[in-house]
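Training component of the fellowship. As part of building independent skills, the fellow (R.M.) carried out the full modelling exercise for a liganded target. The chosen ligand was adenosine-5'-triphosphate. The inputs are recorded below so that the supervisory panel can assess the work.
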Amino acid sequence: MTDLVKVRDLSVTYPRPRRSGGPLHAVRGVDLTMRRGETVGLVGESGSGKSTIGSALLGLVPAADGTITFDGADITRASRADRRLLARRMQVVFQDPYGSMNPAHTVADTLAESLRYNLALPAEEIQKRVLRALDDVGLPPGAARRYPAAFSGGQRQRIAIARALVMEPDFIVCDEAVSALDLSVQAQVLNLLARLKETRGLSYLFISHDLAVVRYLSDSIVVLYAGRVVERGPAARVAESPAHPYTRALLAAAPVPDPVVQLGRRTERLRAVAAVAATPARPGTGCDFAARCPFAQEICRTTRPELVDREDGVAVACHRYDQITAQAA
Ligand SMILES: Nc1ncnc2c1ncn2[C@@H]1O[C@H](COP(=O)(O)OP(=O)(O)OP(=O)(O)O)[C@@H](O)[C@H]1O
Ligand SMILES: [Mg+2]
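Fellow's submitted model of the complex:
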């Protein structure tokens, strides 16, 4: 069976004035493979390049290098017309759906918009799809006549999911789709996404800075640091016994119920971030994480570690992998 999404050696750069160091390398040499029906979680701190990878898949930013294949077809440089066809199959749900909804449009119009634009379906079929999508996300048919402002944050996120569903896609990029919600609402929306995955046979690229949230939905997890993959593997393995020092730090940064422990971790994290801010990256030399890494040795500062396949389907880019795992065992 062909992979649904295959990203090979993807790099994305953003233009920047020369005085601030030339183009920004937001994503560097990323590989990513998704089978049909699989959910891949993409985790990493702010600025690590998560959204940029999602945007590149959706054709919103160009790839500077590498290839993106969708269901066997190379879509790296898909034309505008091809992108319209692809919109039937690839959709996106963002963190702040209100920002992408016209407050003057009813929910029905909001959902129908891309159906009209991309598919030119008859009104009857559009109506049918809109009601089905609302039902699928647990909203009553009456929601169709109301305006986005009439809904809570969680309900608006359901509308955003319904807007993706009307296209009947097989792949959805969820970019921080639950990050702005309260914990209990977050859980409801995660459950909804899990259920839709089964009933509609969806695959998600599930993007979040929160390892626990990513773990909940994902079959496998890809950890990004400074635009590169530092660890990748089965979700349980990566989230519960992370190998890369950065993934370990992410796990340590996850909220814990004890406020004292929480404060300690937060302080530790802030200290680490401050250390990086004080240490300018020297592109092309060593491991990007070396300045923050408690295990770093000379080689880490001079030679970039390759992403190497280890046991249990895990790949880790770390010179100190053997010592760290021996120590943990
Ligand atoms: N449109 C843009 N123009 C210029 N630089 C950008 C643009 N979008 C992102 N960047 C930069 O690219 C890098 C990666 O950004 P990206 O938004 O992909 O990170 P992210 O992991 O999604 O972060 P967050 O968790 O904050 O959403 C960052 O340094 C960011 O400032
Ligand atoms: Mg982002």
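The panel noted the following from the submitted structure. The radius of gyration is 21 Å. The chain has a mean pLDDT of 89.
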